[in-house]
Amino acid sequence: MKLTARRQARELALQILFQTEFAPQISFKTFLEVFEQSLDAEVTSYAETLVQGVQSNKEKVDAKIQASSAHWKVERMATIDRNILRIAVYEMKFASEPIKENIAINEAVEIAKKYGTTDSASFVNGLLDQVGKAY
Fold it and tell me: What is the top-level taxon of the source organism (predicted)?
């Protein structure tokens, strides 16, 4: 899978995870269907893998984030930042084929620059660096 396809998949997964926090009664598959016609099957497939992976490992993913965050509770983090972190931690630590930490961190930082606040990229970078060092 090309890097651009993976980036698109991560961004789509972020959008779906964000939406499911506000409308948990709606299945993530419903949100995914909205995008399926306009995106490559490779993108939607990997996005689905990420969303399912984050959701099925949410407690463990959040525990790793919390253990590396001295000053922020996971539930108090900005929704965008929290879900960017979840995707990256899932890919680094829980995916069936984990990706290298530096790649996961770089991807998360780039997505944070695009979707987060002016502080998101440095927050995500610092926290994921701690996750990588801690485990």
Answer: Bacteria
DSSP string, 85-121: HHHHHIIIIISSSPPPHHHHHHHHHHHHHHHS-TTHH
Task: Identify whether the C-beta of residue 89 lies closer than 8 Å to the C-beta of residue 62.
Answer: no
pLDDT of 32 reads 74
CA distances from 44 to 22, 37, 66, 95 (A): 21, 10, 29, 17
Q: What is the pLDDT of residues 3-59, one digit of tens each?
A: 589 999 999 999 999 988 887 777 777 777 777 666 788 888 999 999 999 999 999
**Structural domain boundaries of the chain?**
3-134
Distances from the Cα of 74 to the Cαs of 8, 58, 130, 133, in angstroms? 25, 11, 14, 19
Closest CA to 81 of 51, 123, 47: 123
Which CATH fold would you assign to the domain 3-134? Answer: N-utilizing Substance Protein B Homolog; Chain A (1.10.940)
